[in-house]
Each structure stands twice: as structure tokens, then as C-alpha cells.
Write a structure and sequence with these properties.
single chain; alpha+beta; C8orf32 fold; Immunoglobulin-like; 2 domains; 5-stranded antiparallel β-sheet; 34% helix
Length: 343
């Protein structure tokens, strides 16, 4: 038992060193150009594709970038198959035999559709990233777990619903989500929209953990091993734009905040690009009305931006932090009047 405990502690000590990206000085234009030039390449010969993507690049991070860019540029999210998969997992969550039978058939269809149509779900994205990386000697893992969005796993965890990758570069682990980086499914038009989001490439673990929770907690890669599973579920809602602008909500820790009239609430974010500070603001909606808060706004030399606002009226408020027109964090503030002393 002690042997396994020591091994776990050793692994965690390795993981916690694998923190935010060390590659800001790298120009990825060449890697991206190679990936875009191979836009119509087939998946039928993965070793050949991996070679074409990486053979003219000198560093592992550039090679991985080319792989990641190609996958995001060429693979389309299969929305309806993903929805069907979630429904089946819920249906068979207490029947492992029935699930295994269905899953075997589903995987056959998944890989056929991936190879023929370049359409897949999150596990397919993660699989292709891992396979192409492994073919050129880059260590890469598929990470399974939970994802929080506006529609899924918002207030409680039901079943694991997402997969992403951890990649080892220069002896450190980094996190990527090619599924979310590649674009989004536009329900109203029933089509997938290519909209690459570079923020999901080698994202800071502290940000990644806001809406990704691995089944194996070690893959959080955060310094202190947080959040806990409960903190994850209760945390503020973030968006793709949060990754785009690379801002990390710090406080409050929960999406739902309960206060009394007259109390002040502090909303804070860690901001990487200080040029964004002047474009950031706090807005509130109560019913259908949106107003800009007259909130005090301060920031320090460490890039911590704070908004402080005192709630003076009873009610339920949706609070959003924005960068320009992009919402990057959302909260709900429930304001009650203090109970009168009965004595």
C-alpha cells in the first residue's frame, strides 16, 4: 500500500510542475501553415499524415502545434451523435453489460464516420490527437471526465461527458481541448461552425479546471490540486471567450452568491493582458433589463482585477463580466433583506 502511495505522491509532484505554457516566445506560423496546406489530407494513412505534418519542424511543441491545428481545421464535431451517446450512457449507466454491447457497436460507427466523413465526438478528437502525436514520439494521453457548459453538468455531475488531451512537452504536461478549440455547433442552422479558439491550446490548468474535471484528479495539473469536485460543480460559468481572452475568474468561488441588502460583493479575475483592463466591465440583468454596474474597479501589479459592488435592493441578479462585448464569467446573486430581530 505504501508503495502505491509513494508512487502517487511522486506522480503528483511531477504534475504540479507542469504549469502554464512556456512557449510564448515560439512563433507557430510555420506549423500552422503546414497544417493548413494539408487541409484535404486523408486519415486513412496516419503515419504518412503525421510525417507530413511534422518532418519540417524542429521542436516538439511546433510538431504538436501542427497536429493540433490540422485536427481542429479538418475534423467536424458530430453534434447529434454526441447527443445520442450521452442519452445512451444515461440509459445504460446501471447496466454495464447492455452498455458494453452498445458501446462496441457505437465505436465501430464512430471510427467509420471519422475516417470517411471527418466527423466525430470529443473522444474521436482526443484519439486522433493522441495517435498522431505518438507516431512522432510525442507522449500524449486521452483524459476523460466532466465538462461544464450552459447546457451540461451545470449544477450536478451526472455522467462523464467529455474527453480532451494532456501532452508532454519538454518533460512537462500541458492541456488541450481540440473539440472546443475547433468551433461550435449552431443549433438554429443545424450546422457546425468552424471558429478556431487558440485559448484551448496549452491552456493554463487553473483556467482549464473551471470547466474540465478529469476522472483522475491528478490530471487537473493545478499547483494545489484544486478544485474539489464540489467546488467544480458550484463554480462560476465560463465560456469559450474566457479562453480567447485568457482571463481566470478568481472570486467569488461559486456561481450562486447569497447576500443581504447593503452587502458588498467582490468579483475578481486574473488578467494576462493588462491592455484588456480598460475594456472590461461588469453588467447585471434583472429580468429583461441589462445595466452597467457603477462598480469600483481596481487592479494590482500581478494582473488581479477587482470589481466591487454593493447590492442595495432585494432581488435575483445575473451578473456578467465582459471583455469588450464578450462575456467571460457569469454569476447569480440572490439578495435578501435582513430578517428583523423578533426581540
Amino acid at each position: 500500500m505504501k508503495h502505491y502511495l509513494y508512487a502517487f505522491v511522486f506522480l503528483v509532484s511531477l504534475f504540479v510542475k507542469a504549469q502554464p505554457s512556456d512557449f510564448k516566445h515560439i512563433d507557430f506560423k510555420k506549423a500552422d501553415s503546414i497544417a493548413h496546406a494539408l487541409h484535404h489530407a486523408s486519415l486513412n494513412n496516419l503515419p504518412f499524415l503525421a510525417h507530413k505534418l511534422t518532418s519540417n519542424l524542429n521542436t516538439q511543441v511546433e510538431q504538436f502545434r501542427a497536429i493540433h491545428t490540422w485536427v481542429c481545421d479538418n475534423i467536424e464535431a458530430d453534434h447529434y451523435f454526441g447527443e445520442k451517446t450521452i442519452r445512451k450512457r444515461k440509459k445504460f449507466k446501471n447496466d454495464s453489460i447492455a452498455f458494453a454491447t452498445w458501446n462496441k457497436e457505437a465505436l465501430t460507427g464512430l471510427f467509420k464516420r471519422l475516417l470517411e466523413d471527418k466527423k466525430t465526438i470529443c473522444s474521436g478528437y482526443a484519439y486522433i490527437i493522441k495517435e498522431l502525436s505518438s507516431l512522432v514520439g510525442i507522449t500524449c494521453q486521452v483524459i476523460d471526465g466532466y465538462s461544464r457548459t450552459v447546457n451540461t453538468n451545470l449544477h450536478e455531475l451526472e455522467i462523464p461527458n467529455h474527453s480532451w488531451n494532456a501532452v508532454k512537452l519538454n518533460d512537462k504536461w500541458y492541456l488541450v481541448d481540440a473539440t472546443l478549440a475547433s468551433g461550435f455547433y449552431f443549433i438554429n442552422e443545424a450546422q457546425f461552425v468552424k471558429d478556431y479558439n487558440d485559448g484551448y491550446f496549452l491552456a493554463a490548468p487553473q483556467l482549464f479546471a473551471k470547466n474540465h474535471y478529469p476522472l483522475d484528479k491528478a490530471w487537473l495539473l493545478t499547483d494545489d490540486g484544486t478544485p474539489t469536485i464540489n467546488q467544480f460543480v458550484e463554480g462560476p460559468l465560463i465560456y469559450g471567450k474566457t479562453y480567447k481572452h485568457n482571463v481566470i475568474p478568481m472570486a467569488p468561488k461559486t456561481m450562486i452568491i447569497q447576500v443581504l441588502t447593503g452587502e458588498e460583493v467582490e468579483f475578481s479575475l486574473k488578467v494576462t493582458d493588462r491592455n484588456q483592463i480598460d475594456t472590461m466591465g461588469l453588467i447585471v440583468s434583472s429580468g429583461f433589463k441589462y445595466d452597467a454596474f457603477k462598480a469600483s474597479k481596481t487592479h494590482d501589479n500581478n494582473g488581479l482585477l477587482k470589481f466591487n459592488y454593493r447590492f442595495t435592493k432585494k432581488g435575483r441578479y445575473d451578473v456578467h463580466i465582459k471583455v469588450d462585448k464578450d462575456v467571460v464569467a457569469s454569476y447569480t446573486v440572490e439578495v435578501e433583506k435582513p430578517k428583523k430581530d423578533l426581540l
